[in-house]
Design goal:
Elements (H helix, E strand, L loop, with lengths): L1 E6 L7 H8 L5 E8 L6 E9 L1 H11 L3 E2 L2 E2 L1 E4 L13
Antiparallel strand pairs: 1-3, 1-6, 2-3, 4-5
Length: 89
């Protein structure tokens, strides 16, 4: 299972729209969109989990693709070592 970072998402993005976009390349296991706490609007990024070969196909097809006027940034989520959660100081 691979976690994919999806950046440069428009505020109108929903789980359903990401499901539709990524399911063309394989089975989507989970979707998590970062949303504003108060408004519930997409904060511009999210994460999708897929199997390895399907994830690679989705990344190569969708990275740089225009989506609602923005160019998507799609890549594997980098593993963080313990203690690196939150903002850098």
């Amino acid at each position: 299972m691979k976690k994919i970072f999806v950046g440069s998402l428009p505020p109108t993005t929903t789980e359903d729209s990401l499901q539709e976009m990524f399911s063309q390349y394989g089975r989507v296991r989970s979707i998590k969109i970062a949303k504003d706490l108060f408004s519930g609007v997409c904060r511009g990024f999210g994460f999708v989990e897929m199997e390895g070969h399907e994830a690679r196909a989705a990344i190569s097809a969708l990275d740089g693709k225009s989506y609602e006027g923005k160019y998507l940034k799609v890549r594997f989520e980098e593993e963080r070592s313990r203690g690196q959660k939150g903002r850098h100081r």
